[in-house]
Amino acid sequence: MTARSAPVQIFPGKGLGFISMFPSPKSLTYKAVDKVANRCAALGASLHNVLTRVKSHPQTYPEIDLAYSSTDPLRNPVILKLPANGLRLRFDGPDQRLRLIEVLDFSRSSLVYKNQDVLKGAKSTEASSTTSQGPGFRHVYNRLFGPSYPGEYIEPAENQSQYGTYVLSYPGVSFSFPLQHSAWSDSCDFVALLSSSAALPATSMAIFQGSSWPEVRAKLFTQQPQYPRSSAVVSKTRDAFADEVEEFHILGAGRLEVERRNNPPAQIILGETTPQDMIAEFGPPDAIYRKHDRRISIHRATGSGGTGDPLHMSPSPGTGIEIPDTDHSSNNSVTDDSDEEISPNSISDPTSLPAECFFNYFHHGFDAFISYPTTPGPAFPQSGIPEPSSQPSLPQLTVTKIILHGNVPGSYPFNRHRRSRWTIHLDQSDDGLTSESSYDDISKRLHDVWKGSNASPEEQRVMQRPMVLNRGWGDSPESSVEFLGGWEETTARGQRNGPDGHDGGLGNTELFGFPGLLFEVLKNGAVSCLTVY
């Protein structure tokens, strides 16, 4: 965005129209603009949704800076900075939803509220000439938002500055004004004080969901967002789009319960749910890929644990761990000879679908592998769910695998899907393992669950050995899958070496298998992808 080019509408408690996907607010009434405001940065929008929109306008947003914790990216906030636009967007780590929008440089955007320019009436003082010029208190109080309750004064750090910060809050929006610390007193009239020469123009503005900044600050990243993850669906009726997926509940024996925003949970039963069932519950897929590649078929389980097969992972007869395809096509930014994209229109005729293909739901955060029915993984021993029955050899295509994408910052498939959250329910009284759990915790629990099913200590040891997966070779960082060194005895976990969070450009992750589950794990222990089969 060039400096002060297109007006940017402020929507307190909702968002900021920093992506001009609609006519200029000057040509619309505020009520009309409000109807399309959800095409911009709406609070509650997913990181995937916002980042995809920003990246699609490189001339408007030439600089993108993504900051996250390299050691714990799923619990700490993710910060998207747009320096050329003077904006900073904060997302929570577990769900990756937009929680706070900050304007840090008012000179970078022409902000508008109800067709009123935010910067009209801003002071010009020598003291503020070295900072971004923001609106003065009088303009905010008299022209923009009106009377307010007293705000919050934050004292300066000792010997750091002669100015403290006065935060003036309105429902859904707040302004930060520098205030001479020597002029501050609890008994002062804040209106008179901020109107005096002791106060400087605002240096920042925040948009959030809540009645005031002090009230919402402690629960900013934990409260339930009011708006959905996809800004495109806010203004539509519920019948016009597939309901938003909130979380996957993995019950075992090939059963998944999909928690949704508005509708009752949907059920997915591997080997039984058809492509038509998927479309009815989740809408048409964003893409369909035919799968030809079998580069890891050599590692598949071929029996019930016979000798001479050191890579076989079968704790007991009938519960062997199949190593399913991990190149899920949707991870590829470049389609190669092994993947053939199919028009989503093909789903109107089920007979036109190939025997094996992926339904890619990028905006839901998962893929579904469509194939002929197979027997899914076993039930968890303490779950109380009956073991799955053997699937008959029928010509009808069904869902045989579900791939849940973690969208972990620093991973190679980052921002291909929005983040998918899940819980593995091991028994009826257990809270379960979650998508935010470290793999060390997940592994320990699952090893305890399946300990009694191991035929020997050797089989238990084999289950603890990861396969190394490389996504870093090829024409793009996501265009190939290679295995390095087969199964390894140990794995080193630590911070990434590269400035972008990748380890030396190879992008190695590790695959760990349990009955019915396959985990792709980053070096920091975060689960990048979970395959349920």
From TrEMBL:
GO terms for biological process: Golgi to plasma membrane protein transport. One of its GO terms (cellular component) is trans-Golgi network. Transmembrane segments: none annotated. Residues 300-349 are annotated as: Disordered. It comes from the Eukaryota. Coiled coil: none annotated. Belongs to the PHAF1 family. This is Uncharacterized protein. It comes from Penicillium cataractarum.
